[in-house]
Amino acid sequence: MKTHLGRRPFSAMELHTLYTGYIYSDSRVAREQAKHWHFWLPLIAYYSGAYSDEIGCLTLNDLTVEQGILCFNFHTHGKIKPRLVPVHQALITAGFNDYLAFIKSQNQSRLMFDLPAKTGRYSEKVRIWFSGEGERAGYLQKCAIPNVDRLGMKTAISSLRLNFEQQIRIYALQAGSKDAFNYLMGFNEYPHANFSDITLLNNVVQQIRIINPQLQWHRFIARESH
Question: Quick one: which of 14, 70, 11, 49 has its CA closest to 172?
Fold first, then answer.
């Protein structure tokens, strides 16, 4: 079936399925080659609206504290603007600070240090792992979520950006700031390079719905094979 209608966000049920799938469970599946980025990249994508390439490029230097708020500094995507996105509390609860300490202990600088670039881009490797390729099933298929639904609409890792967009459009408008929405999405409709009120951005981002409050990176690395 041709995907002429483009991408759609994940439904609430699909998000629940993704974030309670085997990556986020207590046991590894057979022959799974677990990587730290398998745990973190889908979470950061959901809570930041960033593309997988942007997340793959993040370094420790791209975490910045502005007005007392920890933010991701995304600045590596040609089509959307650089922007600061406050780090959602759900990431901290999942062990993000401990993970950062682990990266430093490994003398690494990239947050997704175990995600290699393929053909010069991180997104290609992410796409194959998440959506599958040819006979190879991806995380979506293993969670029993179809790549293409009955209407021809496609889901992929970038669908998480659509989920982010859906939510922050509502919360930014409730806060009376279309600018906050356009800035957080990296849209050209926000004409300036910087956004002065980081607290407002943080208030918008922190309202993003928490999918699975039980997620823990320490649990992920302690999983047993079964």
Answer: 49
Amino acid (1-letter code) at residue 31: R
Amino acid at 140: L
CA angle (141, 144, 146) in 5-degree steps? 65
Residue type, 86: P
Q: What is the DSSP letter of 84?
A: E
Q: DSSP 3-state assignment of 133?
A: strand
Q: pLDDT digit string (tens) for 57-87?
A: 999 999 999 999 999 999 999 899 999 999 9
For 38-77, b where at least 16 C-beta lie within 10 A, e where not — what string?
bbbbbbbbbbbbbbbbbbbbbeeebeeebeebbbbbbebe
If we measure between CA atoms, which residue out of 170, 210, 164, 162 comes closest to residue 9?
A: 162
Say which residues have a Cβ less than 8 Å from residue 126's Cβ, sequence separation at least 6: 37, 41, 52, 56, 115, 157
**Tokens, residue 42:** 């889908």
- Quick one: three-class SS letters along 18-79? HCCCHHHCCEECCCCCCCHHHHHHHHHHHHHCCCHHHHHHCEHHHEEEECCEEEEEECCCCC
Write phi, then psi, for 153 (nearest 5 degrees).
-85, 140
Tens digits of residue pLDDT in 137-161? 899 999 999 888 877 889 999 999 9
Would the pTM of this model clear 0.85, i.e. be above it?
yes
Rounded Cα distance, 101 and 226, in Å? 29
Distance CA 148, CA 145 (A): 9
